[in-house]
Amino acid sequence: LGDYRGVLGVEPAHALARRRVAELQPKVDPRLEKLKEETLGKLKDLGNSFLSNFGMSLDNFQLNEQPGGGYNISFNQGGGGGGGGGQQS
User: Fold this and answer.
1) Phi and psi at residue 73, in whole multiples of 5°?
2) Residue-wise pLDDT tens digits, 19-59
3) Which of 29, 7, 10 is nearest to 18 (CA)?
4) 26 burial type by CB count under 10 A (0-12 exposed, 13-18 middle, 19+ buried)
5) Which secondary structure element, helix H or strand E, spans residue 88, and what is its range?
6) What does the alpha-carbon distance between residue 89 and residue 74 come to, in Å, rounded to a whole number?
7) Of 64, 63, 50, 57, which Cα lies nearest the Cα of 79?
8) Side-chain half-sphere CA neighbours of 72 within 13 A
9) Which of 33, 68, 72, 89 is 20 to 30 Å from the Cα of 12, by its Cα?
């Protein structure tokens, strides 16, 4: 797919490359989405294994997008996602 896109970058009117991109893109997209979900799941597991040493989990943190384009991270001791990562004293 990347090679065909490279051909289209050099010669946008190349008919074979256009056909192949149209054929391959629907096959590649679900695979990439699955890979992305698996990777993020593994990263979350890694983060939770580290944070569990401190009685926390990633569910304790909430990421909020700001109107100006930035992000705000807030901490919720009770655990926001029901993941059960927070400990009560």
Assistant:
1) -105, 125
2) 999 999 999 999 999 999 999 999 999 999 999 999 999 99
3) 7
4) exposed
5) none
6) 20
7) 57
8) 7
9) 33
